[in-house]
Write a sequence for this structure.
């Protein structure tokens, strides 16, 4: 990365640099609000009430807004998370019994830096260190579902109540699903090589011995690498959101997929499973579905099923889990998500 | 010297490989750079977050992509 090599090397300059970056970020976020009003209505003379204008406005405004939110949130979260590591999580979980272990694993899944591309080495590493399978699965379920980036985005777009509700639900699903799978003695469906893997040498804890400069550099790299990976999903999501925003009448979802529709959550989850995105990519769509009257339980269930269950992740996990366990894993998690969706629809008031 | 890049081909692993090769070239070292993509092998090094940098069977970095300068200083004998 060219940018990180120019990072200042003294603490004072680093501080100034961060403050300047935060100022620029806030300015851009603030300007974005009326920039597109001015460009579309005044410069291009488009009719503010036309559907096309509304869709274009949504697309431009949301692309910049979500881009800025992601940059800020990923950077902050990555720098904070560089103090935590999978190695430390494993050390905490080693030798825990099921039950309390599931609770700890789900909680740690939220704060441990993790990418689903490392799911397999992490699974082997946990199991080889004596962490029970059910506890390991609790970690693997919680980690993509309720990570800080999802929390940050939900918080900035929907407020802290919905963010808190989402985290609580994600952690609860991870605890219960991991515990249930552990009870079912799923060890027999884990590929035998996992148990035969021996760990040589001392594992390196990547969270210790880093300078602040290095942590900031990691933060910048992570922003770049996540945005490079997800921008096509993001644009498709915002584009879909723009079409819905412009052409689907308000309250359409309330009428067709409202909380009184018994199949709403089920359909949302079934639609979400084959879709593959992470929390960031799906957010623009979630935002517009909610604003068009889809109930919060259905919206969050849709988001969870997109984030937690996906074909690419299943193919990865197939390396260590046999098909019966994979199917069971997907079924238990999907059931949990559906239950959470109905629960939220039952307790939450209609959006307004 | 044998340098191994642990990782299943994600973007970060490729960046680490490129950085490692550049560091080796810069130092003029006699070293081979190999990729380790098998999950069981990766896990056997105790690495749970890819990518990992292993030099002569010792894990030096895991879970992040060190810069070329950092790899140079890791490879330079103290």
């Amino acid at each position: 990365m060219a940018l990180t090599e120019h990072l200042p090397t003294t603490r004072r300059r680093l501080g100034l640099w961060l403050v300047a970056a935060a100022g620029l970020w806030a300015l851009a976020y603030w300007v974005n609000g009326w920039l597109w009003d001015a460009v579309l209505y005044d410069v291009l003379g488009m009719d503010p009430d036309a559907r096309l204008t509304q869709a274009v406005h949504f697309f431009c405004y949301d692309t910049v807004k979500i881009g800025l939110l992601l940059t800020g949130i990923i950077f902050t979260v990555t720098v904070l998370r560089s103090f935590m590591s999978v190695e430390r999580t494993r050390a905490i979980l080693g030798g825990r019994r099921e039950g309390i272990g599931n609770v700890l694993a789900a909680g740690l899944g939220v704060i441990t830096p993790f990418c689903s591309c490392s799911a397999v080495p992490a699974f082997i590493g946990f199991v080889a260190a004596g962490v029970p399978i059910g506890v390991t699965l609790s970690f693997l379920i919680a980690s993509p579902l309720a990570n800080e980036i999802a929390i940050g985005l939900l918080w900035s777009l929907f407020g802290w109540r919905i963010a808190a509700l989402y985290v609580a639900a994600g952690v609860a699903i991870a605890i219960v699903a991991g515990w249930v799978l552990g009870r079912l003695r799923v060890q027999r469906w884990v590929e035998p090589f996992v148990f035969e893997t021996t760990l040589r040498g001392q594992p390196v804890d990547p969270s210790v011995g880093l300078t602040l400069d290095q942590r900031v550099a990691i933060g910048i790299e992570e922003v770049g690498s996540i945005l490079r990976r997800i921008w096509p999903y993001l644009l498709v999501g915002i584009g879909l959101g723009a079409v819905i925003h412009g052409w689907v009448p308000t309250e359409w979802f309330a009428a067709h997929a409202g909380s009184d529709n018994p199949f709403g959550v089920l359909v949302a989850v079934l639609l979400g499973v084959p879709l593959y995105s992470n929390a960031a990519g799906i957010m623009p769509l979630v935002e517009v579905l909610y604003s068009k009257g889809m109930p919060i339980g259905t919206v969050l269930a849709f988001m969870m099923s997109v984030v937690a269950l996906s074909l690419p992740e299943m193919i990865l996990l197939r390396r260590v889990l046999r098909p019966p366990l994979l199917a069971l894993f997907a079924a238990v998690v999907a059931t949990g998500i559906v239950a959470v969706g109905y629960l939220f629809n039952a307790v939450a008031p209609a959006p307004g | 010297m044998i340098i191994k890049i642990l990782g299943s081909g994600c973007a970060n692993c490729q960046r680490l490989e490129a950085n490692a090769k550049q560091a080796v070239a810069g130092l003029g070292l006699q070293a081979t750079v190999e990729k380790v993509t098998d999950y069981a092998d990766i896990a056997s090094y105790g690495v749970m977050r890819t990518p990992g940098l292993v030099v002569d069977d010792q894990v030096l970095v895991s879970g992040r992509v060190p810069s070329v300068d950092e790899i140079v200083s890791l490879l330079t004998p103290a």
Remarks:
- The mean pLDDT of chain B is 84.
- The domain at 2-75 of chain B is CATH 3.40.30.10 (Glutaredoxin).
- The beta strands of chain B are 2-6, 32-36, 52-55, 58-62.
- The longest strand of chain B covers residues 2-6.
